[in-house]
Backbone:
């Protein structure tokens, strides 16, 4: 820091100027990386809502039953094919469960997100029966057919 | 005069493998269409 006599005499940029330029470059790089990450996450979220979630509109009841099994049972497949559980398991990544969220609350929220995506994609919601979310091991109550806790 | 030791390629290899696995996972999660018959 301070007065750079050599730089002043030769007209070269001083150390302070170089440092400022370097810091500006680092700042621009950080901003570009932050913008790229924000854009990637934003596009991924948009694509999940518009394309990935509506894939469950055909039979969301089955998906929610499998999600409940995956979250509550040690061996959810029970010797059956694993693939349906893997497909339903995508929902755990598309709509993650919050840290302090109960299983029932999570399934209600998940159902709401699927309904919203179906409405957006196809213009109508899907009807879910009680078998979709009831029957689990939760001690906090069971879902009624209309999705309320009973 | 001795040659410089060759730099390890472990770091770039691990980086590329993790990057490829990440891309495959996100492709499967978002792009891959499992189809209507995938769920019972």
Residues:
């Amino acid at each position: 820091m301070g007065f750079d006599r050599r730089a002043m005499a030769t007209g070269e940029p001083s150390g302070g100027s170089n440092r400022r330029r370097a810091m500006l470059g680092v700042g621009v790089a950080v901003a570009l990386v932050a913008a790229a990450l924000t854009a990637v996450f934003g596009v991924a979220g948009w694509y999940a809502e518009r394309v990935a979630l509506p894939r469950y509109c055909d039979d969301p009841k089955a998906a929610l039953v499998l999600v409940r099994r995956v979250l509550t049972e040690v061996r959810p497949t029970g010797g059956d094919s694993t693939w349906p559980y893997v497909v339903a398991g995508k929902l755990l990544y598309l709509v993650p469960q919050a840290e302090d969220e109960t299983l029932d609350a999570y399934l209600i929220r998940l159902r709401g997100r699927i309904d919203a995506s179906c409405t957006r994609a196809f213009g109508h919601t899907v009807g879910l029966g009680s078998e979709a979310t009831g029957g689990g091991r939760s001690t906090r109550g069971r879902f009624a057919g209309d999705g309320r806790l009973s | 005069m001795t040659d410089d030791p060759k730099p390890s390629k472990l770091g770039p290899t691990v980086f590329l493998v993790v990057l490829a696995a990440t891309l495959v996972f996100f492709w499967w999660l978002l792009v891959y269409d499992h189809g209507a018959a995938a769920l019972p």
